[in-house]
Amino acid sequence: MSVFIIAEAGVNHNGSIELAKKLIDVASNAGADAVKFQTFKTENLVSKNAQKAEYQKETTDAQESQFDMIKKLELDLETHKELIKYCEEKNIMFLSTPFDLESIAMLNDLGLKIFKIPSGEITNLPYLRKIGALNKKVILSTGMATLDEIDDALQILQDAGTKKENITVLHANTMYPTPMEDVNLRAMLTIGSTFDIAYGYSDHTLGIEVDIAAVAMGASVIEKHFTLDKSMEGPDHKASLEPDELKAMVKAIRNIELALGDGVKKPSKSETPNIIVARKSIVAKREIKKGEIFTEENITIKRPGNGISPMKWDEIIGTVSQKDYQKDALL
After folding, report:
1. From CA 162, how far away is CA 229, in angstroms rounded?
2. What pLDDT, on the 0 to 100 scale, is given for residue 140?
3. Which of 95, 115, 190, 319 has CA 20 to 30 A from 26's CA?
4. How many other C-beta atoms can be found within 10 angstroms of the C-beta atom of residue 201?
5. Following DSSP, what letter does each residue of 234-269 receive, concatenated?
6. Contacts of 300 (CB under 8 A, 6+ apart)
7. SS3 assignment, position 115
8. Based on C-alpha coordinates, what's the Rg of the chain?
9. Domain 4-260 maps to which CATH number in 3.30.450.40, 1.20.1600.10, 3.40.930.10, 3.20.20.70?
10. What residues pair up with 8 in beta bridges, in sequence order?
């Protein structure tokens, strides 16, 4: 099974279908498996008086309400259809995270095979129940969550009808960008072992090294924000990868997958010819006449490794030479 890489466009399209298509191009060119957007009705998502997060105040107009900021980033049904069609042309899976019940229904009607639950909805029982009842593949992000909260969410999804083997749980940290000391990548392994479930990592750090480490630790899904340009206006651009970084991340993950191998310790195909070159054999230390006894004075150990193995040293010492040997000749 290869790692499922989700390039998270999120709301980095800034409300423009042209930008959204450019993001799909970038994700497809980078070799990601899926490109993910966000689906919401602003009226269903945010109260008129809800505050922005601190990082959003820093990256957008601090005077603007969260409602007004998000309303500009909403994608309607027709836009979804157009983006899904475009993803098919670009041979990449279209995904989107629903943020309300209406959006879940819409994405289901559009035929999505995988439902991504964001960290903020892990304590939303009606939402979890509605997704669980679809019996689709589910990817559950767990930023800000405790093990008990993850347990509750998994229980709701399964009770509603989703099979456990269809759920992947992503360790995550809901801070953009996440400070390295708060990543706690070992918690991903705790999730996997506690719930005996497929696990992965949704990353909000700057750079790509944590994603690569997560894959080396067994992550089966990696999700990462990306943008066309970090300096663009909008809440998430700053903590996103630029196109060349996304490409580098995918390449590195694919290399790590190859490097992980099958776990069997044996000489590999590429190194086998070097056994003769790098290992040693028992050889004559000086000229030896037929009938001489082999001792530490007349035999030694040198390369190449295609003679008698030095592991047989104790068996050879004290035996009688059956022929004459030149110096350095293999026994």
Report:
1. 38
2. 98
3. 115
4. 27
5. SSSGGGSB-HHHHHHHHHHHHHHHHHH-----S--T
6. 282, 283, 284, 285
7. strand
8. 29
9. 3.20.20.70
10. 36, 225
Domain ranges of the chain: 4-260, 267-331
The partner residues of 96 in beta bridges, in order of sequence, read 37
SS3 category, 137: strand
pLDDT in tens, 38-54: 999 888 888 887 887 77
Q: Which two tokens stand for residue 268?
A: 């590999």
Residue 199 β-bridge partners:
169
Residue 212's H or E segment, with its range, is: helix 209-216
pLDDT of 57 higher than 80: no
In sequence order, the 6+-apart residues with CB closer than 8 A to the CB of 100 are 40, 41, 44, 45, 127
223 class by beta-carbon count within 10 Å (0-12 exposed, 13-18 middle, 19+ buried): buried
Residues 6+ apart with CB under 8 A from 65: 48, 49, 50, 52
Q: Which residues pair with 139 in a beta bridge?
A: 116, 168
What's the topology of domain 267-331?
Type Iii Antifreeze Protein Isoform Hplc 12 (3.90.1210)
Q: Are 331 and 316 in contact (CB under 8 A)?
A: yes
**What token pair was written down for 3?**
């790692």
For residues 310-320, give the mean pLDDT: 98
pTM, entire model: 0.90
Q: Is the pLDDT of residue 34 over 90?
A: yes
